[in-house]
Amino acid sequence: MESRWDVLSAVGAITCAWLLLRVAWGVARGVYVYLLPQARRGSPWLRAQGTWAVVTGATSGIGKAYAHELARRGLDVVLISRNLSKLELEAKEIERLHGRRTRVIQADFTGGLQIYGDIEAQLQGLEVGVLVNNVAMTYGSGVLRKLLDCENPAKITADMVNCNVLSVVQMTRIVLPQMVSRRRGVIINLSSVASLRSIPLLATYAASKAFVRSFSLAVATEYRPLGITVQSVSPFVVSTNMTKHPTPGLLIKLPEDFAREALDTLGLSSDVSGCLSHALQVLLMPVVLPQWLLHSRWGDQILLKVFSWLMDSRK
């Protein structure tokens, strides 16, 4: 009996030591990635990757914020989105505020494979140092829904896969060869906190973002020896059109603040939440909303209440 307790004590001690090491590693990593200004690569390093930055979904939200922040840090910017008038307006604003050159490419990323030939042709000859794969969509009305409850589920799911998944793969395929030939370049893929677990009422969206994160981490490993930086960014809630503009605060970031803080993590980690506030929320998520509860019979009702809270905090 005594030897059995000795074994259990040893197992308990090893488990506690392992948990303490994980906590210590998480804290050290958080300090390094988010809190040490001297560890950041800085604008000169970013400009050395190439002359141009390409941003998809660049006319609003996080994509617009990335485009402006990259221009502020000294890169010329190619903006890609489906609304030409908004593209032209945003391009003029970047030129006025930051004094950088811009180009616009009109493309609807729900269109499937056929749109990428034109995008590739228009990027020909540009030294693309940074690609931001930001464009994404969720269910048309922006609310939580069961898979078959949205209007025209066949179209909305196909559009979401084309926009959220195919765009990341094809845009990476287009810019990666020239980065490899120069042995430098940055690819930033916007995933989501939804990528960290399967989420009822957001089934297709969460799965598409899980693909983005998985793809990014694999490609980062493949091309790191060739000088390419690939980063997956998985934010929590940012105040954008997609989230219906909840009021920014301690937990919810403005897109401009988020893009600035996320760009500061480049080269420090290939898998980030983007800012310290969101990293802490991800750390606490298994405690506040464990996976078993999310997939329990009450999971969809809990998510609806969280969504309602976000809607109540709208401007």
UniProtKB/TrEMBL annotation:
<dbReference type="InterPro" id="IPR002347">
    <property type="entry name" value="SDR_fam"/>
</dbReference>
<keyword id="KW-0521">NADP</keyword>
<dbReference type="Pfam" id="PF00106">
    <property type="entry name" value="adh_short"/>
</dbReference>
<keyword id="KW-0443">Lipid metabolism</keyword>
<protein>
    <recommendedName>
        <fullName>17beta-estradiol 17-dehydrogenase</fullName>
        <ecNumber>1.1.1.62</ecNumber>
    </recommendedName>
</protein>
<comment type="similarity">
    <text>Belongs to the short-chain dehydrogenases/reductases (SDR) family. 17-beta-HSD 3 subfamily.</text>
</comment>
<keyword id="KW-0560">Oxidoreductase</keyword>
<dbReference type="GO" id="GO:0005783">
    <property type="term" value="C:endoplasmic reticulum"/>
</dbReference>
<dbReference type="GO" id="GO:0006694">
    <property type="term" value="P:steroid biosynthetic process"/>
</dbReference>
<dbReference type="InterPro" id="IPR051019">
    <property type="entry name" value="VLCFA-Steroid_DH"/>
</dbReference>
<keyword id="KW-0752">Steroid biosynthesis</keyword>
<dbReference type="GO" id="GO:0004303">
    <property type="term" value="F:estradiol 17-beta-dehydrogenase [NAD(P)+] activity"/>
</dbReference>
<dbReference type="InterPro" id="IPR036291">
    <property type="entry name" value="NAD(P)-bd_dom_sf"/>
</dbReference>
<dbReference type="InterPro" id="IPR020904">
    <property type="entry name" value="Sc_DH/Rdtase_CS"/>
</dbReference>
<keyword id="KW-0444">Lipid biosynthesis</keyword>
